[in-house]
Amino acid sequence: MNDRMRVRVLLLRVAVLSLLVTLGARLWVLQILDGDHYRQVAETNRVREVVTPATRGMILDDHGQPLVRNRTSLVISVNRSTTDRQPDRGKAVLTRLAGVINTPADDLVKRIRFCTAQVKPPCWNGSPYQPVPVAKDVSPAQALAVIEHPDRFPGVSADLQAVREYPQGSLAAHELGYLAPVTQDQLDKQGDEKGYHLNSLIGVAGLESTYDDQLRGTDGVQRLEVDRFGRVAGTASTTEPASGDHLVLNLDLGVQQAAEQALQDTINSLGGGSRTGSAVVLNARTGGVVAMASLPSYNPSVFVGGVSEQDYRALSDPANGIPLLSRVYQGSGAAGSTFKPVSTAVAMQNLGARGDQRFLCSQTLQIGDQIFHNFDGESAGPITLHQALVISCDVIFDQFAYDSWLGDGGLRNGRGPYAPPKEYFARMAEAMGFGRGTGIDLPGETKGSVVDRADAKAIWEELKDSYCRRAKNGYPEETDPAKAERFRKYAAEACVDGYLYNAGAATQFAIGQGQYLSVSPLQLANAYVAIANGGTLYRPTLAKAAISPEGKVVQTFQPHRIGTLPVSPEILGYIRDSLRGVTTEPGGTGTGVFADWPSATIPIAGKTGTAEVEGRGDTSWFASFAPANDPQYVVVVSIPDSGTGAEYAAPVAKRIYQAIYGVGQPAAQPGGRPPGALPRINRDGTIAAATASDPLRPLGPGGTSSAVTSIPAASATPPNSAGALLPALVTTPTKAPVTTPVVTGAPTSPPSRAPP
């Protein structure tokens, strides 16, 4: 053997030895170091899970009345692990079953097949070892036909299952929400953490989504041992399901019914097309949501068992008013004169206005080439801010906003440097909670908008190219040539200097109009909560407590403060007194509606508002709280495409107050207060109503108790007699409206030099 061969043999020996060492090391890792892991994997490989869904908790109103509950349904299911082992793979069994439940056999085959990328519903997306439900709500006779003949229906079972039920139909649907099957993405991201399974139903909207963890409970799991052919050989372990907790709300069924019915009646009276409206009632002392209504609504039952594509399209169709959208917290727009209390706070807190000082309420106010004027060109002469709120004078607040704009440097387009702008109106709006979410315990809340100088410039930089393109190409999709040309001129102005914070829009901000302000009804109600209670902003909350199936209080949701108004108590008191005058003093814009209201017992403070919208009728607003001298409830109503605030929104609010206090009808909130205790849930599932709250505290100036027990009925609409008190002024700015058509590549708001 020569040297060359010796080297080759040596290298071969080294290679063989290396392979043996590597193999030995790998075997040691697999069998010793990672042995436990692979034993667990092997165990899992021969075990299949069958899930028993937990009974979901109920959702109850503040008195314990069920808004969402469970009912039992007779369900027939097919176990494929049994039928697939039959010679014909269960074809004969499915044919016999089809005759019992009056369903084509081909449909049953589709329902029990497994979903894949190629196989779309109807199909089964759960575990292959889970019985597949093929018929729900079957009759007892159909169930017995299966139960009494197991020889004819091997692998088929009939049993009782819990099904989600909404006993109040569409009532409070946006707040309650609905369930849907868990998605693969949710399984991948949260499956282990949340305990999701392939056939889990989870909340995807409303309270069902927000409090899904509390309501869902823990599913039961039966772990089946299977052989290498997938046949069940035994049971490894069984975990029983644990029912979810019940959720008690601040929401009151009676007040909710009154709000929805009053809205629906008013919308019906308007007639024509798909109409919308919203109303919200908040507890002024806690921020609790007592009622929240948005129309059109929908019945959550349509989602039980899976919603059809046709139904979902109808619920999302703008032609139907988008029933899935809640206008209360997911929609926003101009607030009209309901915003004037905010501007009053600016005038008195930041601009030096005094409560006894008089300001000229003239017919018009000219700013540059724009003329702003009161509704119908009315003039009231020199008046106080109290009277300005009572009769809703526009030009006084326009003047304050214009002076503030000038004080900040106007357009700030000349030589600088300029001092940082104070922007009192924008800052006060933000302090009141506008321009950001309230934090309500519901998903999908809108933020609205409060646009200051920096925001206006940022928006212009984003939309400049669109403005310039529209200035050149116009709006060919607009059928009205005059309107199309007006839009084109707006776009041409914005293309050049749309970054400027213009006087017209800044002025209209003070009366709740223009392109710089957009609020939701919930945001407005929350601001009025702070005005009513002396300056504390709360997070609006629907949930009050979570109670276990055994009746134990698991969790309470306490009021959560989110801010304090930068306004003195004296100024807030002045504003509250002025708002009370809106419904009680001569010339008040709300006196016609509340002329027959028992104001001596339950004084109501409020503000009408009428906001203009491009291409549609005015939006009617009414924001209020009661009792005015001891606020407990805030009620805000908004009805788009209708008319003045006094004509439509205020009567709806009045009917809500009638329901709350029992004016001419049983009181939804006896004693004028929410329940003072939680409902009691007994171990057998029955519910004992919440105890009554304390009697209404003293309201009169003498400090004597005036609990509401028997109050004569008040009409729900303003009197029509010749002597009735009618609004002297209604808060409608007469300048150009707010929005331009929204089309691809076009701005979604008018150029900043456009009249608001």
Task: Please provide a written account of the structure.
Residues 736-747 have a biased composition (Low complexity). Residues 277-658 form the Penicillin-binding protein transpeptidase domain. Keywords: Carboxypeptidase, Cell inner membrane, Cell membrane, Cell shape, Cell wall biogenesis/degradation, Hydrolase, Membrane, Peptidoglycan synthesis, Protease, Transmembrane, Transmembrane helix. Residues 692-722, 736-756 are annotated as: Disordered. The protein has 756 residues and is α+β, with helices and mostly antiparallel strands. Helix content is 34%, strand content 18%. It is built from 23 helices and 27 strands. The strands form nine sheets. Strands 2, 3, 4, 5, 10, 20 and 21 form a seven-stranded mixed sheet that branches. It starts with a helix and ends in a 68-residue tail after the last strand. 46% of the residues are buried.
